[in-house]
Amino acid sequence: MSRAFVAFGSNLEAPEAQVKAAISTLAELPGLALVKASSLYRTAPVGYLDQPDFINAVAEFDSALSADELLDTLHATEEKFGRVRTFRNAPRVLDLDLLWFEGVTQDSERLTLPHPRMHERAFVMVPLAQIAPELAIGAHGDAATLAASLAGQGIEKLG
């Protein structure tokens, strides 16, 4: 089993319910075991701004799948939830990103690990720091320090 972290986001069709259901769906799949999930957070959109706020979370899994198999699983889950890819940063019912996979550093057209922009995004780092504050993000530092440096990005923990 390898440790893996996945980011969840949604801003369409009851986003809080979508994120919770996606976490549960992945936790029930063969080869994946949910270790812990963060709280839900509300964040403003990035890139394309004319859309609703997002609900985000991060979850830690033990994975018997390879990083590429887990990525395939994430894409299949997005599709199952009705994700339609229209344009970059478009509104979406579900967005799943493989952030970090134990023992894997990869930079291919299909998958880059650790995720190349995670250290710049409060909507990833704040929930990640909640469940794995000590996690080292390459040469950028640990999750807790990075999350603290991104506090000005406007992220709100939901009750």
From TrEMBL:
<keyword id="KW-0547">Nucleotide-binding</keyword>
<dbReference type="GO" id="GO:0016301">
    <property type="term" value="F:kinase activity"/>
</dbReference>
<feature type="domain" description="7,8-dihydro-6-hydroxymethylpterin-pyrophosphokinase">
    <location>
        <begin position="88"/>
        <end position="99"/>
    </location>
</feature>
<dbReference type="GO" id="GO:0046654">
    <property type="term" value="P:tetrahydrofolate biosynthetic process"/>
</dbReference>
<comment type="function">
    <text>Catalyzes the transfer of pyrophosphate from adenosine triphosphate (ATP) to 6-hydroxymethyl-7,8-dihydropterin, an enzymatic step in folate biosynthesis pathway.</text>
</comment>
<keyword id="KW-0808">Transferase</keyword>
<keyword id="KW-0289">Folate biosynthesis</keyword>
<protein>
    <recommendedName>
        <fullName>2-amino-4-hydroxy-6-hydroxymethyldihydropteridine pyrophosphokinase</fullName>
        <ecNumber>2.7.6.3</ecNumber>
    </recommendedName>
</protein>
<comment type="pathway">
    <text>Cofactor biosynthesis; tetrahydrofolate biosynthesis; 2-amino-4-hydroxy-6-hydroxymethyl-7,8-dihydropteridine diphosphate from 7,8-dihydroneopterin triphosphate: step 4/4.</text>
</comment>
<keyword id="KW-0418">Kinase</keyword>
<dbReference type="InterPro" id="IPR035907">
    <property type="entry name" value="Hppk_sf"/>
</dbReference>
<keyword id="KW-0067">ATP-binding</keyword>
<dbReference type="GO" id="GO:0005524">
    <property type="term" value="F:ATP binding"/>
</dbReference>
<dbReference type="GO" id="GO:0046656">
    <property type="term" value="P:folic acid biosynthetic process"/>
</dbReference>
<dbReference type="GO" id="GO:0003848">
    <property type="term" value="F:2-amino-4-hydroxy-6-hydroxymethyldihydropteridine diphosphokinase activity"/>
</dbReference>
<comment type="similarity">
    <text>Belongs to the HPPK family.</text>
</comment>
<dbReference type="InterPro" id="IPR000550">
    <property type="entry name" value="Hppk"/>
</dbReference>
<dbReference type="Pfam" id="PF01288">
    <property type="entry name" value="HPPK"/>
</dbReference>
